[in-house]
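Q: My labmate handed me this sequence with no annotations at all. I'd like to see what the chain might look like in three dimensions before we decide whether it's worth expressing. Could you predict it?
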Amino acid sequence: MTRSLTIAVVLAQAASAPAVVTLTEPAPVTLVPGSKAEGRLAVTVKQGYHVQANPASEPNLVPLRLEMESGSRVRAARPIYPSGKPYRLAGAESDLSIYDGTFEIRLPLDAPRGAAPGEVTLKGALHYQACNDRICLRPASVPASLVVTVARPGKANDRF
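A: Here is what I predict for the chain of 160 residues:
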């Protein structure tokens, strides 16, 4: 009975823990059919923590990874990650490549020729494993979304 209670308390504490990684709602993007643009997603890692850069410096580490859906009106290409910062754990022989603080992931977008005008919300997830100087938390994800407007040709400043 005591063991079950202990597990429940640990799980409840984990569920109520504050988010270590957050995404700021990105600015909307406007495209015309046949054009390209770039979405920018701001990521903030809680002070005292870091996440592994993409690509990770070691094959056994979990890199930060953005997955975004594509649709018939707007296609998302492979994200462009910033360069990582060097970080050395106490006693380690080499640096890790990490992200901490606030940084930006760029997401190339394009609207195929003939894409219908209107607003599209791309949905996805940011996957990561946050660590501090002593422990790594379990891998986690936060939802991501980006509003993209496909404007009529010749009307890039119009919403529809």
